[in-house]
């Protein structure tokens, strides 16, 4: 069956065509990238980008904010300065999930809005112990250029202003993904 035979009139692919594309993706050449950027984390101030959406009954008495659930839509920039080149958004959910230490369970989608990764996403999940340097999180997938992505991210707190409740997080992401151009 030819590829043209299984594309419908709207230009979208049939389930059979998508399955064929998936098999080609699994066999495609892998590409790697190292990405370095900063996330502007505004927990307070006039335009916060992190909002609490739930808390447990013990959150107010917990030294680690256990049970607090927050959603975020943070700016990704090329440099620590929030006015540097805008690269995208870090969107997702973070949960305070350790009774004894300040640690977050994170589910982040890095959405890139410029350059060769424009429109693509990376999905990052894992445990983020905030008191450590070089915190490792898993890259478990992606879309667009990063289809079939896997790898890891190293996160560090670059700066944090207690008075304004504003943090700058530094990320270095090591990612492998398939070259989707080979699969068209």
Automatic annotation (TrEMBL):
InterPro entries linked: Allene_oxi_cyc_Dirigent, Dirigent
Transmembrane regions listed in the UniProt entry: none
Keyword Amino-acid biosynthesis: no
Entry keyword Secreted: yes
A GO biological process held by the record: phenylpropanoid biosynthetic process
Entry's Gene Ontology cellular component terms: apoplast
Pfam family, one: Dirigent
Protein name (record): Dirigent protein
Organism of derivation: Sesamum angolense
Organism placement in taxonomy: Eukaryota, Viridiplantae, Streptophyta, Embryophyta, Tracheophyta
């Amino acid at each position: 069956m030819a590829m043209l035979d299984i594309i419908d009139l709207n230009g979208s692919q049939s389930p059979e065509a998508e399955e064929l594309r998936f098999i080609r993706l699994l066999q495609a050449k892998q590409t790697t990238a190292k990405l370095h950027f900063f996330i502007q984390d505004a927990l307070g101030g006039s335009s916060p980008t992190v909002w609490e959406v739930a808390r447990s009954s013990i959150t107010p008495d917990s030294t680690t904010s256990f049970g607090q659930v927050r959603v975020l839509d943070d700016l990704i920039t090329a440099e620590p300065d929030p006015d540097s080149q805008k690269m995208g958004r870090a969107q997702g959910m973070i949960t305070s999930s350790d009774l004894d230490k300040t640690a977050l369970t994170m589910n982040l989608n890095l959405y890139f809005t410029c350059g060769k990764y424009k429109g693509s996403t990376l999905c990052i999940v894992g445990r983020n112990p905030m008191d450590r340097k070089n915190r490792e999180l898993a890259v478990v997938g992606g879309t667009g250029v990063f289809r079939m992505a896997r790898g890891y991210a190293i996160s560090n707190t670059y700066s944090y202003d207690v008075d304004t409740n504003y943090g700058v997080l530094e990320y270095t992401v090591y990612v492998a993904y398939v070259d989707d151009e080979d699969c068209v």
